[in-house]
Write a structure and sequence with these properties.
By secondary structure, the protein is α+β, with helices and mostly antiparallel strands. It is built from six helices and 15 strands. It has helices at residues 2-13, 63-66, 85-92, 118-132, 148-160, 231-235; strands at 20-24, 34-38, 42-46, 51-52, 74-79, 105-110, 137-139, 143-144, 165-169, 178-186, 190-201, 210-216, 222-225, 243-248, 261-266.
Length: 268
């Protein structure tokens, strides 16, 4: 069983794109960096011809949505509003695009492979969108971060509005791929992803339902997620091999997430 779970993991990730990834903020010096709201949508990479998920799966967006996108590369988030992830995912992952695509915007946060620093790259995209008069494609607003107190105030503001968190980025650098301390995410709780590898039966009021999910991190660490599920999700839990997102508060000495709580299943 473990062999097939590992095989499935590699099949799912074989076509994954190499993208910029953020580390977590831990009181690093971010004075003069740029900060923006972290949107909880579906990440979408435009390669100049097709729109793809971070796993390299082509997104079946309607022709009108793609028609005037540029010949150069964009990276961003398909998004509607705060707290709307499940609806966004259902729209984006449909094989046949629906009219509900009119609810979405493509919120651009990077222009990969383009020259110049971060601000210059974003300006390239902004100039193009302005010339084409694109209303469904926007640049995520960036603010200069004065210091950690400024970041804390902005983060509090986003949290009060129901937002997920904040991204901070060293805007002086040329484009690069991969995970870096030059991009940091700021959230009340951490979140991560894991692969479903098993189930534990429920008891008491959850008798006959799923009690908890057994999951595995990319590094092989295994643990159970027992909270955050609705009764409907316990009756029909994520399938074996699927990828789920969970929140947690730090790690134990054994490297297991503390107070892990289910957020949603990823289909992208």
């Amino acid at each position: 069983m473990r062999f097939f779970a590992v095989l499935l993991f590699f099949v799912l990730t074989a076509n994954a794109l190499v993208l910029q990834k953020a580390n977590s903020y831990n009181e690093q010096n971010i004075s003069g960096w740029l900060m923006s709201e972290k949107l909880d949508g579906i990440r979408a990479y435009w390669d100049g011809k097709t729109l793809q998920t971070r796993q390299g799966k082509v997104i079946n967006a309607p022709a009108w949505f793609l028609k005037d996108l540029p010949a150069f590369v964009l990276d961003g988030e398909l998004w509607s509003k705060r707290g709307d992830f499940e609806n966004i995912q259902s729209i984006v992952m449909d094989d046949v695009p629906s009219e509900k695509w009119h609810e979405l915007q493509y919120m651009v946060f990077e222009v990969p492979q383009s020259e110049g620093n971060f601000t210059q790259r974003l300006q390239k995209a902004a100039d193009y969108m302005s010339a084409k008069k694109l209303t469904h494609v926007k640049i995520i607003e960036q603010k200069i971060c004065k210091d950690k107190e400024d970041l804390a105030a902005f983060h509090k503001q986003i949290q009060e509005r129901g937002g997920e968190g904040v991204m901070v980025k060293d805007g002086s650098l040329p484009y690069f791929d991969g995970r870096s301390d030059s991009i940091l995410k700021v959230k009340k709780a951490e979140d991560a992803e894991a692969k479903v590898i098993g189930y534990k039966k429920g008891s008491g009021k959850y008798k006959g339902l799923m009690g908890s999910l057994q999951v595995e991190l990319e590094n092989g660490t295994q643990f159970f997620i027992g909270s955050g599920f609705s009764d409907a999700q316990r009756a029909n839990p994520p399938k074996m091999g699927s990828i789920v997102t969970f929140s947690y508060f730090g790690l134990t000495k054994l490297g297991k997430p503390k107070f892990a709580s289910f957020l949603h299943e990823r289909r992208d």
